[in-house]
Amino acid sequence: MKSLVVFALLLGAAVAATGQVSSHNPAGANPPAAASLPSTNSLFDPSDRPVARVNGAVLTDRDLLREMLQIFPYANQHNGFPKAQEASIRQGALQMIIFEELVYQEAKRRNLVVPARALLQSEAEFKKQFNSAAEYQQYLKLEMGGSEQQVRDKIKRSLLIEQVLKSDVEDKSAVTLGDLRAYYEKNPRRFQVPESYAFQSISILPPQNPNPEQKTEALKKASAALAQAKSTKSYQEFGLLAERISEDDFRVNMGDHKSVKKDVLPPQVVKAFSSMRPGQVSDPIQIEQAYTIVRLNGHTTATMRSFEEVKTELKVELQNVKYEQLRAGLDKRLRTNAKVEIL
Hints:
This protein folds into two domains: 6-173 and 329-342, Triger factor/SurA peptide-binding fold (Orthogonal Bundle), CATH 1.10.4030; 195-301, Chitinase A, domain 3 (Roll), CATH 3.10.50. The protein has a four-stranded antiparallel beta sheet, with helices on both faces. Strands 2-1-9 form a three-stranded antiparallel beta sheet. Strands 3-8 form a two-stranded antiparallel sheet. It has eleven helices and nine strands. Strand 1 and strand 2 (57-60) form a beta hairpin. By secondary structure, the chain is α+β, with helices and mostly antiparallel strands. Helix 2 crosses helix 3. It has helices spanning 6-11, 61-71, 83-109, 116-127, 133-144, 148-170, 177-186, 212-230, 235-245, 267-273, 307-336; strands at residues 50-54, 57-60, 192-193, 196-204, 256-261, 285-287, 290-300, 303-304, 340-342. It is 49% helix and 13% strand.
C-alpha cells in the first residue's frame, strides 16, 4: 500500500542532501523529517528532462528522482544508487510516477475537488517540514521556481491522487474479523510453532581429513573444554568461555545459536537435549570429526499460535496483500486506454 502524502510528492530532489523521504508505508506514512536542501554541489542534479509522456502529460527526471529516493532513501550517503540495483530502482520509480499521473488524470476525469480547508491545512503541514522560513524560501527558489502557486498546485494534485486511492483501493482493502478467522482456519500450518531449542556451543574442530594423532588431540582438547564448561554457572560464563576456546563461528557471539528448530539439528544434538534441562551442559558430542559441547538455554515444544495472538499482524498482512492487488488492478484499468510513452 502506498500513501501518497503531499510531502513525498513535493520534496523531490530537495531530500537528496539527507536521503530523508516519507515512506511507502502500507499502514499509512508518518510525517517525514524536516526537508533539507541540496547544496550547489549536490550529488543529484535533475534538469527537468522529459522521461515519460502520459496521455500528453510530461513527466521529468525530477519526478523520477523523487520516486527513486523514495525507493532508496540513502542514495546520498552511498554516493548514489547501488550499481547492481540502479536499473531496477529506476524502472520501479518510472512505473510509479506513471501510475500517479494516471490516477491524477482519473481524478480530474471524475471532476473531484479538494476542499479549500484541506488544501490550506496540507500547505501549512508541508511548510512545517522546513526548519525555518529561510529554508523554505530556498526550497521554493530551487525546486519550484519561486512560485507559491506551483507548490499549491502540486499539493492539490497529490490530494486528488489520494482521493482516488482511498475510494478505489484503501477503502476496499479492509478485511473483517470473519475474513481473518476464515484465513486462520484454512491455513493452520502457517501458525504452527515448531519444537525448538535455544543453546550455546563450544566446538573443537580438528584439521580436515585428520590423521589418528590429530583425532586424539581433538578429543583431549574437548575433554579439557568440558571440564571448564561444566564449571560455568551461567549463560554469561559459558559464553565468555566459548569466546576464548571455541573454534566454530558462533564463538564471536558467546557461542549463542539463539533458537533453532529441532528438525534442522543433528540427531546427536537432539538426543543430548532430550535428557537435559535448561542450564545444563552436555558431554562432548561427536559430529563427524568435530566435538561439540552444548549448553541448553531453553526448549520450546511444538504448539500453535492462537487466533488472538496473530489476528493483529494477520490483519495488516492481509490488508497489504489486498491493497496491492487492488492497486495493481487500478493500474491495469487506467493503462488500458492510456497512451504511455517512455522517452
